[in-house]
Amino acid sequence: MASSMPNFLSRLLRPFSSSTQMGLNPEGAAQSIPANAQKCTVAAGCFWGVEHLFRKNFADKGLLDAKVGYIGGDSSNPSYRAVCTGRTGQLLTPTPDAESLQMTFDPSVLPYTALLEFFYKMHDPTTKNRQGMDTGTQYRSAIFFHSPEQETQAKSVTQRAHEQWWKGKITTEILPAGQWWDAEAYHQLYLDKNPGGYECPAHYVRNFPPLTE
Asked: Does the annotation mark 46 as catalytic?
């Protein structure tokens, strides 16, 4: 539900939950996924707006499913509260989890590179560990690849976006996808359930020209 308080305050005051939903799509129902389906996992700041923009732009265009969650850290089954502390890494390798989006898509309809190009249009990859007013390692920009082919494509798109769109300032990490944890149920499809809810001001689609080889 929309609130009269500023959006960023709504986000700070939202309730915490310790429950984590595993193995379900956001609606909680099983889906029929084609055998050729692939995953695309990205982090671009507050996952509410990231999910909303990807669903809005790729619905019925090869995007089969999308869920928000946590990846990139070393903890087991992290909660939103724990991720917000930035301390879900281990002592000797203190890499915390990032608020992230994991999509399932049909590559015969929707190329992986199209998702990555949109990723670089819809957030600011030049602000390390920050998007808009949201600051912390959980808001870092990252691509988590699921295969050697995805790694190659991610590096190619990133280099071109780095040079052609973002004036050599991209700070996005490109890392192998590790353990994924679904976020709590109330985070899934948050902006569909809460019109007028918090959206990071850095989340909008830039009008960039097409990338060239």
From this structure: yes
